[in-house]
Amino acid sequence: MAHYYFERMMGHEYPNISGYHRVTVDEMNGTTDRDKEQKIKKLMMANKINGIVLFGDIAQKPNIVESSQNEDSKIGPNVLYPIASLQKVYTGIAIQKLINEHKVCLSTTLNKFYPNIPYSNKITIGDLLSHLSGIDDGNQQTLTVLKNENDTLSFIEKNLNSTGKIGKWNYSDSDYALLAGIISKLSGMSYQSYISKNIIIPYKLKNTKFYNQVNNKTDVISGNVQSMGNGLCFENLKKKMSVALGAGGMFSSAIDYWNFINYLTSNKIIPLGTITSSSNKYYDGVYLGKGTFHADGSMNGCQSCFIMSYDSNQTFILFSNNISFKQMLNIRGKLADICFE
């Protein structure tokens, strides 16, 4: 069994799986993907998880393990699921693409785009990407679903709190909402159009959609269904998603997200090294470890995560809708033990 150390950073953990490579039967005394699949099934059943795990070599078709505690909320590989902060990877990649095209720099200051935000003359694009801007989210509650990106950006700018504590780690959805706005300003199109044109459409991610493209509650998986009812849960979910521009306003199937990470790690969207070469612990929507990167998402009772080892190409993705974020972090560690052993 592989051993890991975990670094703590505002409740997030960094598994060190550097140096591991894709296992073979001979190397692991008979350990195969089938063995891992059985271990994952037992883990999910023991923890009564309603969810799905995809694992294996990211360049190949994934191994899939499903666990259903509620047939009405079964998470299949092609079902639309609110990916929450896993969307930040899309936003980070889009900004990185614009940086690589020399349309903006990490050192470009926020006041070039949002001069009315306090300390915007000192906050840089790099600060936003790494959650070092000193910006707190403030109020993120809205009574209605926000209709468009302009409404969302106005809401964010009005409610955020720019503290001036630049350089201090502070996880903030507002950082990535502002980055989404910057993408729109630089590209001359909406953030949604830019992501669709440059990522979703060319890579045929047909089960990746923005919240305003999904109107039928039966098309998606929601969390908290048992306590709230599917209708109310879907309504509340879309309210939250409408506020989370660039940071939690997308649905994706598990298969689509697997393929998205595949395209990223194979250097098809941007060179992966432009992300992994960062000296920050968090950059472009992912937490960076030694030879790994990962992300976590949580919204409305739905928990999601992935860890990718670019040393070995081994990856796993977990989507669930009946566990807490704390439980997900615990399960994530156990999945790392299984998938990267």
Task: Tell me what you see in this structure.
- InterPro entries: AmpC-like, Beta-lactam-related, Beta-lactam/transpept-like.
- It holds the Pfam family Beta-lactamase.
- By secondary structure, the chain is α+β, with helices and mostly antiparallel strands.
- It has one domain: Beta-lactamase (3-Layer(aba) Sandwich), CATH 3.40.710.10.
- 35% of the residues lie in helices and 18% in strands.
- The protein is built from eleven helices and 14 strands.
- The chain has a seven-stranded antiparallel β-sheet with strand order 4-3-14-13-12-11-10, sandwiched between helices. Strands 5-9-8 form a three-stranded antiparallel β-sheet.
- Helix 2 crosses helix 5 and helix 4 packs across helix 5.
- The longest helix has 15 residues.
- It is globular.
Sequence-ordered SSE layout with sheet pairings:
Elements: E1 6-9, E2 12-15, H1 33-46, E3 51-57, E4 63-67, E5 81-82, H2 87-100, H3 125-129, E6 135-136, H4 149-159, E7 161-162, H5 173-187, H6 191-200, E8 208-210, H7 225-228, H8 230-243, E9 250-252, H9 254-265, H10 273-276, E10 282-283, E11 286-288, E12 292-299, E13 302-309, E14 314-320, H11 325-339
Antiparallel strand pairs: 1-2, 3-4, 3-14, 5-9, 6-7, 8-9, 10-11, 11-12, 12-13, 13-14
Helix pairs in contact: 1-11, 2-5, 4-5
InterPro entries: AmpC-like, Beta-lactam-related, Beta-lactam/transpept-like
Protein name: Penicillin-binding protein
Domain Beta-lactamase-related: 74-272
